[in-house]
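Entry type: protein chain
Record version: 2
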Amino acid sequence: MPIPLSQRPTHPPHKNRSDRKNLRDMLPYIWDYRGRVLLALLTLVLSKLTSVSVPIVLKHIVDELERNQDILPILPIALLAGYGVLRLATALFNELRDIIFAKVRYRAMRKLSNQVMTHLHALSLRFHLERQTGAITRDLERGTRSVSSILNYMIFNIIPTFAEFSLIVLFLYLQYNVQFVLVTIATVVIYVTFTFAVTEWRMEYRHQMNAFESQANSQAIDSLVNYETVKYFGNEQFEAKRYNHTLSQWEDCAIKSQTSMSALNFGQSSIIAIGVTIIMVLASQGVVNGSMSLGDLVLVNTFLLQLFIPLNFLGVVYRAIKYALADMDLMFKLLENKPEIQDTATAKPLIVTQGHVRFEQVNFHYQPERSILFNIDFTIPAGHKVAIVGPSGAGKSTLARLLFRFYDITGGSIQIDQQDIRNVSQASLRAAIGIVPQDTVLFNDSIYYNLAYANPTATRTDVIAAAQLANIHDFIESLPKGYDTTVGERGLKLSGGEKQRVAIARAVLKQPKILIFDEATSSLDSKSEQLIQTALAKVAMNHTTLVIAHRLSTIIDADQILVMEQGKIIERGTHAELLNINGIYTHLWTLQQQEERKMATCM
């Protein structure tokens, strides 16, 4: 019996990178501000020096009080003033450290976020067809936030605690019995070793939590984006069960994580309690035998409080850093993905003089075991219109993707004005080609933004002129907000014909030499199709045009028509020539004419 989709096991968590590698990869993002980092560290040291000085001043105040009954005349006012100044200086240096380091932290977040976004856009189409948008956005969000967390913990917790520990140990060694130093060091070493060991053991739960959280987030976004499909099939409960199943796995890992954390916290508290007790016993013995004053007891106790309170928090910080490194892990793994399609070292800009396109014995497969195109050979002379027709799965749209170089061909060559597109830069290649796709997806922004997206530097006059050529200007002007109308997510507030005309206007605004119409009217009604066809005819004038068509009536004026089947060109010629052949094209033409007559009769 097959396992229901909602109950299928998830993939095991990915193999994680080393924490050292993640930290090393993070360093370049703060290197530009190393001067600020050093200045922040200087203020940190000054802060700890004043912080350690406070208990020393307090010791002298207590000793003075112990020796003198008549306090006010004898107690040096300077000690009290110094105590207040040192506390104020500690706070001042801490705030200065925060101010100085703020730019380093937030600039690192900005640079990393921008690099990941740029890298994602640089990755090839194959990656984006296989990715899960929800999981990637979650990984990006957690990863950039983790950079801030690690920098924050390192500068504001780990280094300050280590500096304070070093200063306190040095003072205890110089002023008191070496036993105080040994007990303090032993307690800290045992505490840190225990914390590291237990945290490493329980980190697998965090990695699993991240994996299930990303999976749940991806499922939620995917089901919401496909809201209509869910409704069409009545699968609300199915989606809820699938989402709940993933959350159930996340819940199990979260409970194990919390339980093990409680055990860790108790162990840390026990180590600190034992260490503090031993230190206080030694100090009390010193007071009793006269080797230490009451002020010394207060000093040692205050030192321990200053040291072990942040040390206790250090356990939390270490866990937080480990969590942040786990969060950072997936983001850096994204950056390790190499673009499948890359410019060669000698790639030059494409120079388009005429727009002559040549497919020469092109072969292609997505997977080696399944070939898609076989020996595709045709030419589109400059200014001519070539149409490609055939059944679904014949490989028609693949030709458009290959011309844009979203994939590299596995045999033959594709040339524009006798330049192999593999030897030119991708940016210049795609700048020379405009496309009106079958399914136009728009940004959730204004109509004007979506129109101008083809050429962000275009003037408003240019945008309006493109809209007029695409026969959509009057429609836009009829809307209450005109060009400022928001189109909704993926352009869902516009009809199919309206979105297609936006796509045509964008192609006009881009001003390419080569145009691709990828089944631009296949899903439209007759009225919309006529409007689109009129607009396409205007746009295609004096352009080299490749038309991938479903409705044969839209391409009867093509200079050449190629008929594809199972990845091969089986017929070619003009509309009249193909009808005379009485082959596949004639069969398709006859079927479509019969369908159109039936629809006309029904109307």
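Comment: The chain has 20 helices and ten strands.
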